[in-house]
Design a protein that fits this description.
The chain is an alpha/beta fold and 307 residues long. Helix content is 36%, strand content 24%. Bound molecules: adenosine monophosphate (AMP). The site of adenosine monophosphate (AMP) has 17 residues, from strand 2 and helix 7.
Length: 307
């Protein structure tokens, strides 16, 4: 089995109350691949970069078991660029600049060997591109997860609604759930979105954790209270990578197992925010991941005698 990941591989420039970076390597797919690599050694990437993208970053992905056969490198073109500035609460941010560059005319080509991947992670990208990847699969994957953001809702809502029809799990943040549904209550928003295609929806609430909804059930996972948060960029993508990576590893897509996957996703997100960009995800080891999972278990377990 394997995970097929599509999403941006990008340059980011980030500003937080703790500092500022020039162009660094980022992108939704980069974070997803790095986070998944702690759970599965079969990660297939479909994306696009320009000639300006460093080969060292591509080598770094290869060293994390990412198969880059589906990564197009466009001669004479520039890599997708995003720049954002976080507010003092670190939960909200303004996008300062989005330069689509190579994404503008991106036609994703899924290599033959990738077409039977059983887990498909449609990371944040143009909804029409996400759909094109899904349509190239030999048969419907065991699980299709889609992540998106307000940028695509603002500009390509119809395409997004089309893509959602074939999705099993949608991951979005609270504001995006409100925008997509037109409902303020997250419970009402989830109910409405669950009539549009997805069987499950995960609503991410930054430092306030994440909610997993099915039609009948709901599960809440906290975020780990951290002493230092340097850069929330990629938290959502690291979450998605941990979530789908764990499901691929365990091959169990029941609601009960998705609860565990949400905890693994939250653990990967908690690492990601501790340093700028993808740095922390490239430094940690399996032992640290296991220790962090234990901290999550301790955080939420308690004894109770109801009598
Ligand atoms: P997150 O903080 O989880 O929303 O992810 C941030 C990452 O998403 C950054 O590394 C950006 O390069 C990437 N990104 C920003 N805007 C977009 C967009 N409109 N579509 C796809 N990826 C984006």
């Amino acid at each position: 089995m394997s995970v097929l990941v599509v999403g941006t591989v990008a340059f980011d420039a980030i500003e937080t109350p703790f500092g500022k970076t020039d162009k660094i390597v980022g992108g939704a797919a980069t974070y997803i691949c790095l986070a998944s690599s702690f759970f599965t050694k079969k990660i297939n990437l479909v994306s696009v970069v320009g000639e300006d993208f460093p080969t060292t970053a591509i080598e770094m992905l290869k060293s994390k078991s990412v198969d880059i056969k589906g990564l197009q490198i466009k001669k004479g073109e520039k890599t997708f660029f995003w720049s954002g500035k976080y507010h003092n609460n670190m939960n909200t941010r303004d996008t300062l600049d989005t330069q689509l560059n190579v994404l503008e005319n991106f036609n994703p080509i899924v290599p033959e060997e990738f077409k039977e991947s059983e887990f498909l992670m449609l990371g944040n990208l143009m909804p029409s591109v996400q759909k094109k990847v899904l349509d190239q699969m030999k048969e419907k994957p065991k699980l299709v997860v889609l992540d998106t953001m307000n940028f695509w809702m603002d500009n390509f809502m119809d395409d997004l609604k089309k893509a959602l029809k074939d999705v099993d799990v949608l991951t979005i943040n609270d504001e995006e759930a409100r925008q997509l549904s037109g409902e303020y209550s997250l419970v009402k928003a989830a109910k409405k979105i669950l009539t549009k295609g997805p069987k499950y929806i995960i609503i991410k609430k930054g430092e306030h954790g994440a909610l997993l909804f099915s039609k009948e059930k709901v599960f809440f996972a906290p975020a780990l209270p951290l002493e230092e948060v340097f850069d929330p960029t990629g938290a959502g993508d690291s979450f998605a990578g941990g979530f789908i990576g764990y499901l691929e590893k365990t091959k169990d897509i029941s609601f009960e197992n998705m609860k565990r996957a949400v905890i693994y996703g939250s653990a990967m997100a908690s690492f990601s925010v501790e340093k700028f960009g993808t740095k922390k995800l490239t430094e940690i080891n399996q032992k640290q991941v296991n220790e962090r999972i234990k901290r999550f278990v301790n955080l939420v377990s308690f004894d109770l005698d109801l009598k």
